[in-house]
Amino acid sequence: MSNKTKATIAVTVLASSVYLSGCGLFGGDKEKVDPPQDVSYLKEGQTVETSAGKDGKGKAASSEANEQTQPTELYLINKDGYVMAQTLQLPKTEGIAKEALEYLVANGPVSEMLPNGFRAVLPADTEVLGVDIKDGVAVADFSKEFSTYQAEDEQRILQAVTWTLTQFDSVKRVELRVNGTPLTEMPVNGTPINSNGLSRADGINMDTSGVADITNTHPVTVYYLSQNGEGYNYVPVTKRVDNSVKDDVAAVVNELVNGPGYNSNLVTDFLPDAKLVDAPTIEDGTVTLNFNESILGSLKEKKVSEYLMNSLVLSLTEQPMIQKVAIEVNGSTELVNEDGKSITEPVSRPEKVNTGSF
């Protein structure tokens, strides 16, 4: 894909950004396992006043439904084979980590909830025997049916289970067992499993295109866009960066600008001539980035695409030392989003990803 083609795609994405209001992307901090949080969500376009019908029953029913469910990220497989989050409302329970894994099982309870083009990752009839969380490690124990997957899904299973469980603050690493026996490698293709457990640092949707010597590289994860109907979802992709690159923040920005692999069916909302004009600075968990004008969707009004901003925040907050992102354009913080709202304040990572239905 040429830079000119990527620029055309980026303009198309910018034109489509009006759909972001339906994505419900930005919220607060990640959900904790104990206890589940009470979170109320309104449907797209609703307000507190309009969510009820004329008789007021709509509002009461919506409130009752939200008291019985909780938004949870399930890492599923999309039509292009990528593992990515879809935030679905699961029945509220104290054992949310175990329940989340149960909703990854094919032909299981997720079947009636699967978004178009998505499929569950764990083999049908797999039982989740337990999820024990202690000292940041989640030990997930499965029945023997766990081992009946297709070989091409082996990496996807590792990634989906790891990223689904590590959405919770109490989980940093994941260990796998089958009928109580720890797995040191996956049962079909023999992928080794780190004795210290699996983590997000192991990557997801790995893209090694253009890398000649992978041993002289290290991973960074960035979020590209995948079209889903009339809107877009955010897809995490782990790229390989040469070890000579010492600034991973700048490396993430560069990968977002360079875009995904040519045959990926993913796009970026960054124009190819976007770049940092100063080195990134990090203070108290907030990274400040000073860009040139090529990140603006409107030079006159200084508008920043929300797809661009969301991809940037999701990507950079995968870095352990970053909780917020602040941007400038040639030193100016007088920037607005497409709704005309100021974005001069640093932006936090969303509570949940891909919450909308397009």
UniProtKB/TrEMBL annotation:
Residues 97-187, 249-338 form the GerMN domain. This is Germination protein M. Residues 45-69 are annotated as: Disordered. InterPro entries: GerMN. Pfam families: Germane (PF10646). It comes from Falsibacillus pallidus.
